[in-house]
Specification:
The chain is α+β, with helices and mostly antiparallel strands. It has 2 domains: about 5-75 and about 100-180 and about 275-350, FAD/NAD(P)-binding domain (3-Layer(bba) Sandwich), CATH 3.50.50; about 185-275 and about 360-390, D-Amino Acid Oxidase, subunit A, domain 2 (D-Amino Acid Oxidase, Chain A, domain 2, 2-Layer Sandwich), CATH 3.30.9.10. Helix content is about 35%, strand content about 30%. The protein has helices at about 15-30, 40-45, 55-60, 65-70, 90-95, 105-120, 240-250, 305-325, 330-355, 365-380, 380-390, and strands at about 5-10, 30-35, 50-55, 75, 80-85, 85-90, 100-105, 125, 130-135, 140-145, 150-160, 180-195, 205, 215-220, 220-230, 265-280, 280-285, 285-290, 295. β14 (about 215-220) and β15 (about 220-230) form a beta hairpin. α1 packs parallel to α6 and α8 packs antiparallel against α9. It binds 8-demethyl-8-dimethylamino-flavin-adenine-dinucleotide and P-hydroxybenzoic acid. 8-demethyl-8-dimethylamino-flavin-adenine-dinucleotide binds near residues 49, 106, 164, 166 and 291.
Amino acid sequence: MHTPNHTTVGIIGGGPAGLLLARLLHRSGVDCVVLESRDRDYVEQRQRAGILEQSTVDVLRSSGAGERLDREALVHDGIELRWDRRSHRIDFPSLTGGRRVWVYAQTEVCKDLIALQLEDGAPLLFEAHVRAVEGADTDRPVVRYTHEGQARTLTCDYVVGCDGFHGVTRDAVPDRVRRTYERVYPYSWFGVLADVPPSSDELVYAHSPRGFALLSMRSPTVSRLYLQVPNGTDPADWPDERIWDELDARFAVDGGGWTLKRGPITSKGVLPMRSFVSEPMSHGRVFLAGDAAHIVPPTGAKGLNLAAADVIVLARAFAELKETGSTAGLEAYSATCLRRVWRAEHFSFFMTSTLHTDPAQGPFETRLQISQLDRIAASPHAAAELAENYAGLPIG
Ligand code: RFL
Ligand code: PHB
């Protein structure tokens, strides 16, 4: 494939943020190039998020990437919370003025966007590893990368780092202006995929004395389940039987009437949990979007949706620049996104700390968690606060 040496917007990373940004820019007639270090198969198979907010679904649809989503995604109107061997359902539409969420895996979002991009989009190079982004303060930032064993450069009018938490673009923001905020949690998630129909129609978030558990799904025949485990847990210590027994114990409610269906486990992995924000989200002509700028623990299902929100704001700003010559949207990008980022950081922290058992916590902290969950069950106001954040706030 012919690769240009210059482009308007150089996009580093072909995860959800980079792929969606490329799609939106293409629709606005802004040219770009996407450089992705992994191969296509890897990006399409990487098991990650599963929940899409209304605004994420809206943008996928309006950018022409919603066709399979509309056929295959499961629409959910609520979640179930379990604690103290009781359960309570949170109904999103009635608490949020009609908002809901879609169960459609990140793997599928990436497959749909990659197929569109290769069909009629801007150049997308796999196995193109970016080494450095230079000249953020100049009007011609340069991306240095390696592709097919050769060192190459791409000069750009603007560079967007969509290269995730371990990417290199963040380094283009000098230390003197960069501020980072971080919390590493004293537990991880052990995630499994199982070939068994989900045991509940909706997601179940469980607080228990044995730790947190989550029942999610990928389709009517595939369950996705998570258990809180200590950091450093080796999946080899968790034979299938032990996983199902532990899930059973954590989801247990009084009164029976619910059973966890078991089936063959097809994948296992341990996911550490982190909160992280790097400010500002732009410097000169370099912008950061998605996990490159911020990480949330997955309990609020916000990671992928935040990445989408960033690139929606950025794509609008580039469209405005092309149409009117104004850089106002680009200048406001960081401040605009950080307001939503910090809301999601707070919500993700709240969900995580309310539902998990910190190894250092005592009976006092546990009673506070139970009290908080009781409050959500008792008060439509408390429930609405959770529902609005979970189902997603409109993008301003
Ligand atoms: P991504 O998806 O990490 O994509 C970044 C892309 O950049 C590429 N890259 C480079 N390319 C070129 N040159 C370089 N030097 C590069 N360095 C990196 C990478 O190969 C990759 O393709 O970031 P993006 O697009 O911002 O999307 C964000 C979401 O992926 C993320 O927020 C969520 O998936 C977070 N997350 C989860 N969220 C949930 O809501 N539920 C989950 O169950 C869930 N599981 C997860 C997750 C994140 C994980 N990571 C990042 C460790 C599980 C994992 C393992
Ligand atoms: C998932 O299905 O992978 C999933 C769902 C909800 C979360 C986190 C992960 O909060």
